[in-house]
Amino acid sequence: MKSKQLKNKKTEFIHLHVHSHYSLLDGLGKIEDLLERTRELGMDSLALTDHGVMYGAIEFFTKAKDLGVKPIIGCEVYLASGGMENKQPKVDEKRYHLVLISKNKQGYENLLKLVTESHLRGFYYKPRIDKEFLSRYSKGLVATSACMAGEIPQALLSGDMEKAEKVLSEYQDIFGKDDFYLELEHHEKSPDQQKINQGLVELGKKTRTKMVATCDVHYVMPEDKEVQDVLLCIQQNKKVEDKNRLNMTDFDLYLKSPEEMRKKFSDIPQALSNTVEVARKCDFYPAMGQTILPHFEIPGDKNENEYLRKKCFWGIKERYGQAGYKGEVKKRLDFELKVIKKMGYASYFLIVADFVNWAKNNKIVVGPGRGSAAGSIVSYLLKITNVDPIKYELLFERFLNPERISMPDI
Q1: What is the DSSP secondary structure assignment for residue 44, as one 8-state letter?
Q2: Engineering a disulfide at 372: which of 327, 340, 399, 405 sits with its beta carbon 3.0 to 4.6 angstroms away?
């Protein structure tokens, strides 16, 4: 990564469970503040694992690079206890937390898929996925057992070690034994957390599963606790003085230093070093500023340029008649196709034509094309536009020419 690098002693701990203000009405810390504090405390990497969303991913990548902090993208997802598409009241409201972290490009793309479908298909109170869907998109991901709301911690809290071991085995089958970690959190005022930690340590030793230490960051500084509590009140439509509400003031969820974490986990130092191990597994930076088009399936053995020409010839017959490929039409089409091929935009025209014509065939209103796009005979022949650029003497060069750097805009 070409950015300002930290000059400090060897990193001993990395935060792998962090919520920003993109965990709406739950997380308080702004991304830039989290990154600056991370750098200030001498850590060279930071994960972002917002609740059920990846809204902050690109901002996080960009600002982390500028500050010389390695960005690790993840998400604390919600796991449906039943199928993700089951939405029966008072049955499917139960869900568990699971932290997912992308190791590489494949993991990042799989995480995008999981989060997207959790909103489109699995949403019921929260965006949800299930283990069956998770197993299909688990490649390139590291997972941890998450906070007290995780499936394994909940089993341990109820005293069911047998179930916890069974669930652990399921997750290891999904991610692989080396990429699933038991997550320890240190909250002194929570007897439940202490019980869970004891169970996690026992389970880890019994199954030889690695552990990581986290503090489930929700704000940057210790003094931010009261403001974050106000956010929770807004989320629940409660008042601060209400007793019957979710209250996290007994938990210190600020961005702790490696020294603080070392004191809290002095009896399990490997849980700290394992966070560095996870961070070193993660090495992905998205190609920023590049246009990445969806894949367009070309029928037969033709390439996109050949298929675009073929589609245009079909359009000539419909727009100009059987003998339409002559004179000004021929000259204009050959010129446009040459420019489109040179600039590598054949797939773009095919993609736009595909969704525009699908919309028209399904009685969805589509405009006749906007601005300079109407100056293209290719657009006209593909039925993207309905204005004949030959008849009205419209210039193709206003829409697309070899000197233009940006994508054409239809």
Answers
A1: S
A2: 399
Q: pLDDT tens digits, residue range 97-120?
A: 999 999 999 999 999 999 999 999
Contacts of 230 (CB under 8 A, 6+ apart): 240
Rounded distance, CA 58 to CA 32, Å?
12
Question: For residue 403, is pLDDT > 90?
Answer: no
The predicted model scores a pTM of: 0.83
Burial status of residue 59 (CB atoms within 10 A of its CB: 0-12, 13-18, 19 or more): middle
CB burial readout 22-55, b (16+ within 10 A) else e = bbeebbbbbbebbbebbbebbbbbbbbbbbbbbb
Alpha helices in 287-395 (DSSP H): 304-320, 327-343, 346-361, 377-381
- Residue 1: pLDDT over 70: no
Q: Contacts by 195-201 with C-beta closer than 8 Å and gap 24+?
A: 195/156, 195/157, 196/148, 196/153, 196/156, 196/157, 199/153, 199/156, 199/157, 199/161, 199/164, 200/145, 200/152, 200/153, 200/156, 201/268
Other beta carbons within 10 angstroms of residue 267's beta carbon come to 7
- Among 76, 275, 84, 87, smallest CA distance to 181 is for 275
State how far the Cα of 186 lies from the Cα of 193, in Å rounded to an integer.
Answer: 7
| pLDDT, the chain, mean | 93
Burial of 383 (0-12, 13-18, 19+ CB in 10 A): middle
